[in-house]
Amino acid sequence: MRNLLIVSICCAAAAFVTSCRTKPAGPRKTTIAVIPKGTTHEFWLSVKAGAVRAGAELPDVDVEWIGPEKEDDRTQQIAIVENMVLKGVDGIVLAPLDRKALMGPVAKAKAAGIPTVVIDSGLDGNDWISFVATDNFKGGQLGGQRCADLLDGNGTAIMLRYQENSASTENREAGFLEVMAAHKDKGIVVASSETYGGATNASAQEASATLLRRFTDSEGKLTIDGIFTPNASTTIGMLMALRTQGFAGKVKFVGFDSTEQLTDALRKGQIDGLVLQNPMNMGYLGVKAVVRHLKKENVEPRIDTGVVLVTKENIDKPELRDVVNPDFDKWLKQD
Predict the structure, then answer these.
(1) How many whole angstroms separate alpha carbon 277 and alpha carbon 134?
(2) How far apart are CA 219 and CA 89, in angstroms?
(3) Do 115 and 218 have their domain in common?
(4) What's the CATH number where 198 sits?
(5) Pick from 89, 90, 144, 190: CA 20 to 30 A from residue 319's CA?
């Protein structure tokens, strides 16, 4: 009897301790899945930093960052979106790899009551609630005007494209070509604009090297005067090809996006202009927009995150610091 009493007391005590250690379940947090085009380039790390910052300012929100490793893996990105729908996240922030291929997954999200905010690159259809991005056509125009100014109204230029069905870069390419066409009567010619560099630095370097050889004469001299590239991978790839073939700094070169490698080349005179976005702002405003929508607040269908032209002359201006050298490490260390 005495032993039974001791066992009963011990069990009661254990139950008491367990109940003290078990915290009552708190309110469920809102989960926002942020799905970029890729997860390796510095651009996407900046987007992630902005999303993490937004999550830090919203204590009832969890930001889940998940995306394909490579920027040409449409199949994986589609699977990720569909998995997030099955998981039952509350909202999605998506940078679609393909403006058409991601329409179906986003439609499924909408049918499941999960709103999607599109960032960086456009998506066809109307199943998303807001588009948070650079004015990419304007960015292409800035690049085109810089190239035209460098050529002083006369010369031959080429453009290396990114990849098919990428709405953001297609708009940049169109903006560049529009400006070049406006200078046609003054003597500017676009000799090539149909070659694609692809999503990786390596593929872009290979495509650039082939393109440069096409415009190299028998004496080993370039027969072009200007180059435009519409994103980080094509700009890095072209830079590496120019260096390998000994042409860096010998042709007017305008690119897109900011990395330490590219801004260093700009300072050295191997790049003559970089059109820069604000990727941290995309991630930040993307998360904020979907949360506002979930709270039944008004969300603008188009949110412009800004675009600027940076040159060797203005790169160190204080007002450009956040786009030239964003402090994304501050936020990623909290992740």
Answers:
(1) 6
(2) 60
(3) no
(4) 3.40.50.2300
(5) 144
Clarify whether residues 122 and 149 are in a common domain: no
H/E run at residue 105: helix 103-111
Read off the pTM.
0.85
Residue 283 and residue 272 share a domain: no
Enter the tokens of residue 163. 């990849």
What percent helix, strand, coil does the chain show, rounded to 5? 45, 15, 35
DSSP state of 28: P
**Token pair for residue 286?**
């993307």
- Residue 78 to residue 217: CA distance in whole angstroms: 45
Tell me which residue range forms the domain holding 68.
Answer: 30-134+278-306+327-332
Confidence of residue 335 (pLDDT cuts 50, 70, 90): low
- With the CA atoms of 154, 160, 166 and 167 taken in that order, what torsion angle do they form, in degrees rounded to the nearest 10? 0
pLDDT in tens, 108-117: 999 999 999 9
Q: Are residues 210 and 120 in the same domain?
A: no
Asked whether 136 and 175 are in contact (CB, 8 A), the reply is yes
User: Which residues, other chains included, contact 152 with Cβ-Cβ below 8 Å and sequence gap of 6+?
Assistant: none
Does residue 18 form part of some domain? no
Whether residue 12 lies inside any domain: the answer is no
Give the chain's radius of gyration (CA, Å).
25
Residues 154 and 266 occupy one common structural domain: yes
- The domain total for the chain is 2
Predicted confidence at residue 25, as pLDDT, reads: 52
Judge whether 196 and 229 are in contact, CB under 8 Å: no
Q: Is the pLDDT of residue 197 over 60?
A: yes
Are 169 and 301 in the same domain? no
Residues 6+ apart with CB under 8 A from 153: 183, 186, 187, 188
How many residues are listed for the chain in this entry? Answer: 335
Q: Are residues 159 and 93 in the same domain?
A: no
